[in-house]
Specification:
globular, 3 helices, two-stranded antiparallel ribbon, about 325 residues, disordered N terminus, Porin, single chain
C-alpha cells in the first residue's frame, strides 16, 4: 500500500513539473540582423517643362526646357547627409548660351522635424558670346566676341556664370503641412559685378490621401522671395549711370498644385514678379525684348516680358538608385 501511495506521489509530482515547464516562456531564437542601409546612394531626376523659370524670370525665353540631375549622397548617420550634384537645363540666354550646368554640394543635418541644408552652387553657362562695342568685350577677356550690341541695343557678357552660397531649413509640422525658408548670396550675380542676396520662404500642404486612388497623391505649395540686388560694373553702364546700373531689387512668387504617382510628379504652377518690363530688361539684357519701356536704369530701352506672369507645367521623374534594386 505504501508503494502504491509513493508511486502516485511521484507521478503527481512529475505531472506537475511537466505542466509548469509547459507554462514557462520559451526564449525565442535571436532575430536575424537587419542589414543597415548602404551609406551611399544616388538621386536621379529628369524633367520636361513648358518654361524654365528662376526667381520669377524665364531662363528659356518662355520656351519649353528639359532638365536632368545626378546627385550622389553619403549618409554619415541617420541625421547627417553629405551630397554633391550635377544638373543641366536647356536655356535661351542673350549671350547665346544654350545650356545651364549646375555644380553644387553641401551637407544636410536633420534634427527631428527640422531639416537643414548648407552648401554652395555654381551656375555655369558655357558657349556664350560677348555683345557690346569692341572695347568692353576685350576688357572682359575677348574670345567669342562679336564687337556689336544685340539687335535691340542690349549688351551682355560672354561669361555670365556665377556662384552662390546658401542655407535652408524645412520644418515638418505633421504629415499634412511643412514650411521652410532659405537665404542665398552671391558676390556677382550673372557675373555682372552686382552682389545679390535672395531671401525665400515656402509652404506645402499635402492633400488627404483619401481623396485619391491608385497610389495618386497631391499637394499645394507656394513660394515667395525677395532678391536684393546691387550695382553692376561699367560693362552695363547706361546714360545717367556711367559706372554701372543699380539693379532694381524685386519680389517673386509662385503657387501651384502638384500630383504624384510613384516616381512621377506633375506640377502645375503660376509664377510672377513685381519687376516692370523696363527694369526687367535692364536686369536680363533680354535679346527678345521689343518696343520701348523707359525707366531710370533702362533709358529708352526695350520692354522685356521675361519677368511677367506665366503658367508652367512640369513633369518630373525622381528616384534613388537604391529604390531600383
Amino acid at each position: 500500500m505504501k508503494r502504491v501511495a509513493f508511486s502516485l506521489v511521484v507521478a503527481a509530482g512529475l505531472a506537475t513539473s511537466t505542466a509548469f515547464a509547459a507554462d514557462m516562456a520559451v526564449k525565442a531564437p535571436p532575430a536575424p540582423a537587419v542589414a543597415a542601409p548602404p551609406p551611399w546612394d544616388i538621386s536621379v531626376t529628369a524633367a520636361l517643362m513648358t518654361d524654365y523659370n528662376f526667381r520669377g524670370v524665364t531662363q528659356s525665353a518662355h520656351q519649353p526646357s528639359t532638365q536632368a540631375t545626378f546627385e550622389p549622397r553619403y549618409n554619415f548617420n541617420s541625421n547627417w547627409q553629405g551630397y554633391v550634384g550635377l544638373s543641366g537645363e536647356s536655356i535661351d540666354f542673350p549671350n547665346r548660351a544654350a545650356a545651364e550646368i549646375d555644380i553644387y554640394g553641401g551637407i544636410r543635418p536633420t534634427f527631428d522635424k527640422l531639416a537643414l541644408d548648407f552648401g554652395g552652387w555654381y551656375y555655369w553657362y558655357p558657349g556664350g558670346q560677348c555683345f557690346n562695342t569692341p572695347g568692353p568685350c576685350e576688357a572682359q577677356g575677348g574670345g567669342n566676341s562679336v564687337g556689336v550690341a544685340l539687335p535691340n541695343g542690349n549688351v551682355v557678357k560672354r561669361n555670365v556664370s556665377f556662384f552662390e552660397g546658401y542655407g535652408k531649413f524645412t520644418y515638418t509640422v505633421n504629415d499634412s503641412f511643412n514650411f521652410g525658408g532659405s537665404i542665398w548670396g552671391s558676390p556677382s550675380v550673372l557675373n555682372s559685378g552686382a552682389p545679390g542676396i535672395f531671401y525665400a520662404g515656402t509652404a506645402t500642404i499635402n492633400l488627404p490621401s483619401a481623396w485619391f486612388s491608385n497610389g495618386v497623391g497631391a499637394y499645394i505649395s507656394a513660394d515667395g522671395g525677395w532678391w536684393q540686388l546691387g550695382t553692376s560694373d561699367s560693362f552695363y553702364a547706361v546714360a545717367g549711370f556711367p559706372n554701372g546700373v543699380p539693379y532694381k531689387s524685386y519680389a517673386s512668387w509662385d503657387v501651384g498644385l502638384a500630383f504624384t504617382w510613384k516616381a512621377f510628379t506633375l506640377d502645375l504652377r503660376y509664377y510672377d514678379s513685381n519687376l516692370n518690363k523696363g527694369d526687367c530688361n535692364a536686369f536680363t539684357s533680354d535679346h527678345t525684348a521689343a518696343g520701348v519701356f523707359s525707366t531710370a536704369i533702362n533709358p529708352g530701352g526695350p520692354a522685356s516680358n521675361w519677368c511677367q506672369a506665366t503658367f508652367i507645367a512640369k513633369l518630373t521623374f525622381n528616384t534613388l538608385i537604391s529604390a531600383l534594386k
